[in-house]
């Protein structure tokens, strides 16, 4: 993709989406460092315990907006897309786990409960793992046929010690 094409796509983003993109460009490397130094479980639990009332990082929230599944799904896809853009064009290329953690957290802050899924597969005698986020069974940040490539754990990964409805 050329720089001009990228710039044209950026210009199409709303102000809220651009704000989220900037935050996500910062969050992805911070998440990577946090997971590296503290481990996935600790970071996952810490994120789950964060106060959902603070909307500082959620510029896309409309306080009076009524929630319905269709609007939540649209918003979830938008956030997943923005995180993908930040990972692809930002200064840090996040892996699937880091991107999924950021998506899961941002959606949680929006009041949209999603599932962080981890799947595994064996390829050429190597065990590979992959992470993605789902909302009501819809894969947000990967292909819909991810279940054909990776066998997910029986249930979504839940953070220990944190209340996740």
Q: Which secondary structure elements does this structure contain, and how are they paired or packed?
A:
Blueprint: H1 3-11, H2 15-38, H3 40-49, H4 69-89, H5 96-109, E1 115-123, E2 126-135, E3 138-139, H6 146-149, E4 151-152
Antiparallel strand pairs: 1-2, 1-4, 2-3
Q: What labels would you give this structure?
A:
165 residues; alpha+beta; 6 helices
Overall description:
With 165 residues, this protein is α+β, with helices and mostly antiparallel strands. 50% of the residues lie in helices and 14% in strands. It is built from 6 helices and 4 strands; from the N terminus they run αααααβββαβ. A 4-stranded antiparallel β-sheet has the order 3-2-1-4. The protein is globular. The N and C termini lie far apart (40 Å). The mean pLDDT is 84. It comes from Aerosakkonema funiforme FACHB-1375. This is Lasso peptide biosynthesis B2 protein. Pfam families: Transglut_core3.
Major β-sheet profile: 4 strands, antiparallel
**Spatial order of strands in the largest sheet:** 3-2-1-4
- Quaternary state of this entry equals single chain
Derived structural class: alpha+beta
Give the overall form: globular
- Supply the number of helical segments: 6
Q: Helix coverage percent of residues?
A: 40-55%
Give the DSSP E fraction (strand runs of 2 or more residues).
Answer: 5-15%
Number of strands: 4
Organism: Aerosakkonema funiforme FACHB-1375
Pfam families: Transglut_core3
Domain Microcin J25-processing protein McjB C-terminal: 52-153
Protein name: Lasso peptide biosynthesis B2 protein
């Amino acid at each position: 993709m050329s720089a001009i094409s990228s710039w044209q796509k950026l210009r199409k983003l709303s102000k809220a989406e651009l704000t989220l993109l900037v935050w996500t460009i910062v969050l992805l490397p911070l998440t990577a460092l946090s997971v590296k130094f503290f481990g996935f479980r600790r970071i996952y639990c810490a994120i789950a315990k964060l106060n959902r009332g603070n909307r500082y990082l959620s510029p896309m929230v409309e306080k009076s907006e009524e929630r319905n599944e269709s609007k939540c799904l649209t918003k979830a896809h938008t956030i997943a897309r923005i995180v993908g853009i930040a990972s692809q064009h930002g200064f840090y290329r996040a892996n699937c786990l880091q991107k999924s953690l950021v998506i899961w957290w941002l959606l949680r802050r929006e009041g949209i409960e999603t599932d962080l899924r981890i799947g595994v597969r064996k390829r050429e005698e190597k065990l590979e793992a992959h992470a993605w986020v789902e909302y009501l069974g819809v894969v947000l940040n990967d292909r819909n046929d991810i279940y054909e490539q990776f066998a997910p754990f029986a249930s979504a990964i839940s953070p220990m010690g944190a209340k996740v409805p």
